[in-house]
């Protein structure tokens, strides 16, 4: 008996993993912001990229709190900055966005288990070593977000979310200040630390 074939209308923009950590200060402002991309398909190819604002409010940060765009593909970095990051208001509107310059990374490492007590991503080059660590991981939630619910406002998005209740960003061995905030994702209350796996961003058909 033949199986019915199903496909989602639209054009795939990119697909991959996209975990992140956003920390806030005591006034509720973002003190550090990070996204890690492990892209398995995009028009610019595959690759990995770290976006880090250790100083979100300045385009020229101190060396101890750098703003970084570090990865293994400048073409992919350019694609993600132009077609994705620039559409996320919380990242685009930060002064740090205007000072981003791509740097090559020479080391990537993944440790831990999303089913275990901790999961982490480490990215490094000659000047910087950054570790993103997620702890107190919760059960996964499968999400489908329509454009009005996504950060870009332009995409349909499918993803597997593993919420985290405790997380840290470490730069050259020093933890960045701040704590997690809360947020609501498609009616689901979670935190500003998240593991997004198998994320697929689709540009809907206009008709």
Give the SSE layout.
Layout: E1 11-17, E2 20-24, E3 30-41, E4 47-53, E5 67-71, H1 74-83, H2 89-92, E6 102-104, E7 107-112, E8 118-124, E9 129-137, E10 141-145, E11 156-171, E12 174-175, E13 179-180, E14 182-185, E15 188-191, E16 193-203
Parallel strand pairs: 5-6
Antiparallel strand pairs: 1-3, 1-16, 2-3, 2-13, 2-16, 3-4, 4-5, 7-8, 8-9, 9-11, 10-11, 11-12, 11-16, 14-15
How does this structure look, described?
The chain has helices at residues 74-83, 89-92, and strands at 11-17, 20-24, 30-41, 47-53, 67-71, 102-104, 107-112, 118-124, 129-137, 141-145, 156-171, 174-175, 179-180, 182-185, 188-191, 193-203. It is mainly β and 207 residues long. The strands form 2 sheets. Strands 1, 2, 3, 4, 5, 6, 7, 8, 9, 10, 11, 12, 13 and 16 form a 14-stranded mixed β-sheet that branches. Strand 7 (107-112) and strand 8 (118-124) form a beta hairpin. The model has no long low-confidence stretch (mean pLDDT 94).
